[in-house]
Amino acid sequence: MTAIAASSDPRRQRLKHGVALLLPAMLFGFLVAAQWQGQPERSSIAVRYNTPLTDAAFALQKEQNDLKVQLQDLRTQLDQIQSNAATQSGAASELQKRIDELKAQAGLTAVTGDGVVVQLDDSHTVAAGATNLDQAICHSTDLTDILNTAWRGGAQAISVNAQRVVSSTSVYCVGSTIMVNGTLLSPPFNIAVIGPQNSVLGAFDDPNQLRDIKARRDVQGLGFRVTRANAINVPAYDGALTVRIASPQ
User: Fold this and answer.
1) Where does the chain show beta strands of DSSP type E?
2) CB of 186 within 8 A of CB of 140?
3) Other Cβ atoms closer than 10 A to 76
4) What's residue 99's pLDDT?
5) Other CB atoms closer than 10 Å to residue 154's CB: what's the count?
6) Residue 161 class from Cβ within 10 Å (0-12 exposed, 13-18 middle, 19+ buried)?
7) Can you list the residues of the chain whose pLDDT is less than 50?
8) pLDDT at 177
């Protein structure tokens, strides 16, 4: 009997040690789980964009704004020189008229007229961590599709958030923003379109046009609306002209 009791002591000791180690392990696991669950979810918007790329874009934006100011000053001086020269002779006056016509065709003069205004905005009904977030926000391709539809409807002049759209205009995404003419823009986007209202509205109402945008508006709540407007102001293009070869029609 004494031998049996003695042989059971080591097993009791191992059991006690096992229980002593199990309790701290369970407590540590509980604390880790609580810490993990207590951390707020990071928005997918915050992690999907490249911060260095966005910072570089903002730096280039500042440099471009400075160059635009210099360019505008030079254009003002050129306009003054051309205006003074036009008063010298009839031939110079005719030449100045032709220059003004070409500037208007190139989008270098401001325009006022009737047309439509298109409003495009991110959805405000979809949560930041939703799996379908990409379907609820504006993309550069959305703006491109809207611009093409407006031209198809007979638009004569277009601007996006006061950025004049011309033949050399580029539209693309940089991080969470969209660049138009090299200028960083964020939603909401107001696209001003000067042109025959019925024709332009007909292009936007066409069920075969902008199917993806209209579907996302109805399902994800993407902001998209087209309305008539009078006396719309579309500013002149103030960026650099990169066209090397062109011929007037």
Assistant:
1) 111-121, 157-160, 163-164, 171-174, 177-180, 183-185, 189-194, 223-234
2) no
3) 10
4) 80
5) 16
6) middle
7) 1-8, 15, 19-25, 27-28, 30-49
8) 85
Same domain, 87 and 137: no
Q: What is the CATH number of the domain that holds 149?
A: 3.30.70.1880
Dist CA 240 CA 234 (whole Å): 18
**Tokens read off for 59:** 């730096």
Choose the final residue of a domain: 105, 120, 151.
Answer: 105
Domain count for the chain, please give it.
2
pLDDT number for residue 3: 44
On whether both 82 and 140 belong to a single domain, the answer is: no
Q: Are residues 121 and 232 in the same domain?
A: yes
Same domain for 122 and 89: no
Task: Give the 3-state secondary structure of residue 51.
Answer: helix
Give the structural domain span for 56: 49-105
CB-facing half-sphere around the CA of 226: CA atoms within 13 A:
22
d(CA 233, CA 138) in angstroms, rounded, equals: 24
For residues 138 and 126, the answer to whether their CB atoms sit within 8 Å is no
pLDDT in tens, 33-71: 443 343 333 233 333 445 555 666 666 666 767 766 776
- Same structural domain for residues 124 and 165? yes
- Strands laid side by side in the 177-180 sheet: 171-174, 177-180, 183-185
Question: What's the whole-model pTM score?
Answer: 0.65
Phi, psi of 145 (to 5 degrees): -65, -40
Same domain, 147 and 212: yes
149 and 88 within one domain: no
DSSP annotation string for 113-125: EEEEEEEEE--SS
